[in-house]
Amino acid sequence: MDVKDTRMNVLIAGATGMIGEGLLHECLHHGQIGKVVVIGRRACGWAHPKLTEIIHQDLSDISGLAALLSDCHACFYCVGTTVVGKTEAKYTAENNTLPLGFASGLVRIRPDMTFCYISGAGTDSTEKGPLMWARVKGKTENDLLKLPFTRVYNFRPAGLIPFLPLKPSQTYYWLYKYFKWPFALLKPLLPNYIMDLRVLTTAMINVAVLGYSKNILETKDIELAADRIIE
Fold first, then answer.
1. CA 141 to the chain's CA centroid
2. φ and ψ at 35, to 5 degrees?
3. What is the pLDDT of residue 3?
4. Most CB within 10 Å of its CB: which of 85, 172, 194, 201?
5. Which runs of E-coded beta strand occur in the chain?
6. In angstroms, rounded to a whole number, what is the distance separating the alpha carbons of residues 204 and 97?
7. DSSP assignment of 42-83, as one string?
8. 41 contacts 55 by C-beta, under 8 angstroms
């Protein structure tokens, strides 16, 4: 007799960044996660029986990928760029237009999906504050919440302490590793601004599987979500 697989299949967009790669590592080793589909412009550098990789240059148009994405239950959008040296128009194109194009295409493929977006601490939900990046991220959060997904969650992490499984050749780990010990020392003094990357990735998986009472998760919410136990 066939036994139905009740594990969750997930899609990760942006697995070559620190958060995306950390999340990929955790998903591949999580008992409640079945298939893991990664989509990005370049190879993530990982190989695993659970992993399916899609190299796709234009993330704003995924209309031709329905057959590959239709069995995913949740999506983690971890694509992001720095604001340093960017005009508002450029930053908006990369951090609002692109994720909205991707999410809009995905919701047409599978509207009963849970969509999780990596935003950032200090994001401005009013879209009217003085910080350009915070306004743009706030607009993206608000726009995503208007899409007809079953559930949308916006995560707002601050400083992150990476963990060892990250591949230095694939992420900014070579830079972040030098901040590990200073961040660890500062964490007791700035508990709302620094957390372990594994806390964030655990919270993301838990929220995708179990849900959460809020659509926007600040540091405290992320820590609470990470403490939940999936049975």
1. 13
2. -75, 140
3. 47
4. 201
5. 8-13, 33-40, 51-55, 74-77, 114-118, 151-155, 159-161, 194-196, 216-217
6. 23
7. S------TTEEEEE-S-TT--GGGHHHHTT-SEEEE------
8. yes
pLDDT along the chain (231 residues), means of 10: 72 92 93 96 92 96 95 96 92 97 97 97 96 97 98 93 59 57 56 80 96 96 90 57
Q: Are 26 and 8 within 8 A, CB to CB?
A: no
Tokens representing 99?
Answer: 């994720």
Tokens of 35: 């298939």
The pLDDT value recorded for residue 2 is: 46
**Phi-psi group of 217: left, alpha or beta (phi > 0 → left; psi -120 to 50 → alpha; rest → beta):** beta
R_g (Cα) of the chain, nearest Å: 17
Phi–psi pair at 155, nearest 5 degrees: -100, 135
Residue of 44, 30, 42 whose CA lies nearest to 74: 30
* pLDDT score, position 11: 98
